[in-house]
Amino acid sequence: MSFLELKSLCKNFGGLRAVDDFTLTIEEGSLNALVGPNGCGKSTLFNLITGVLKPDAGKVCFKEHNITGWPSHKIARLGVGRKFQVPAIFEELTIRENLVIAARNTANRAAINGILAQINLIEAEHMLAGELAHGQKQWLEIGLLLAQAPSLILLDEPTAGMTAAETRATADLITRINRDQGITVLVIEHDMGFIEHLACPLHVMSKGQILKSGHFADIRKDAEVKALYFGQAEALSDA
Ligand code: ADP
Ligand code: MG
């Protein structure tokens, strides 16, 4: 059995098929990106994986457990960490205190230092989280995920509102988390520069389903994907 298996997942909101017969297998230790236009069902898919929403049909299997319909705290305990678009940090506590709380006081000082170094906030450890720049808050939240020692990390648009330099640094951070720590990562993203920098398999979603999977270089040349994602005009001009 694979690490994470999504089998024929469906989720309707009234008459809207937000996720429609969605099937994807994620191997342990891999890094994958999920892209697609606004409203195509990406965040809903993360809600189905994490137990925030229950699917109308289909199955979610993780580490040989059928976790379909499990409550989200149980799924989190099994090792699924998820970052929302808006950082959920304790603004009135220091960076280090945020990490200690996230680790539920189980991580030792060295482990916390390692995370601080990784998210590039070691100099800022005694600053209040609320004083951080927007991009740094996003990194702190990734740090909070790491402190919980997940085996799968789901990131929903982690570079939203970031500068180009911050976006690039985030791509590097995610690459290191995956490559050096062996944490499996599935990232939703809009920013194509970021996706290119990640250099990982890409799944393009449209209307609740996967339209195409492949590597960035091939995907960007695909006429169907171009029409959907890069805009009709570009697809026609390059044809
Ligand atoms: P994405 O993350 O790809 O932008 P979403 O998964 O957030 O897309 O949304 C997919 C579709 O489902 C959209 O049309 C959205 O309006 C709708 N939707 C998402 N969540 C809900 C909800 N809780 N209730 C009703 N409709 C929803
Ligand atoms: Mg979304």
Provide an overview of this structure:
It is a single chain. The chain has 239 residues and is an alpha/beta fold. The protein folds into 2 domains: 29-55 and 68-79 and 150-239, P-loop containing nucleotide triphosphate hydrolases (Rossmann fold, 3-Layer(aba) Sandwich); 87-149, no CATH class. The chain has helices spanning 42-50, 72-77, 95-102, 109-118, 134-147, 164-181, 192-198, 216-219, 223-230, 232-238; strands spanning 4-13, 16-26, 31-35, 57-62, 65-66, 80-83, 152-156, 184-188, 202-206, 209-214. The protein has a 6-stranded mixed beta sheet, with helices on both faces. Strand 7, helix 6 and strand 8 form a beta-alpha-beta unit. Helix 3 runs parallel beside helix 5, helix 4 packs antiparallel against helix 5 (134-147) and helix 9 (223-230) runs antiparallel to helix 10. The relative contact order is 0.17. The model is unreliable at 232-239 (pLDDT under 50). Bound molecules: adenosine-5'-diphosphate and magnesium ion (MG). Magnesium ion is lined by residues 42-43. Residues 13, 16, 18, 36, 38-44 line the site of adenosine-5'-diphosphate (ADP).
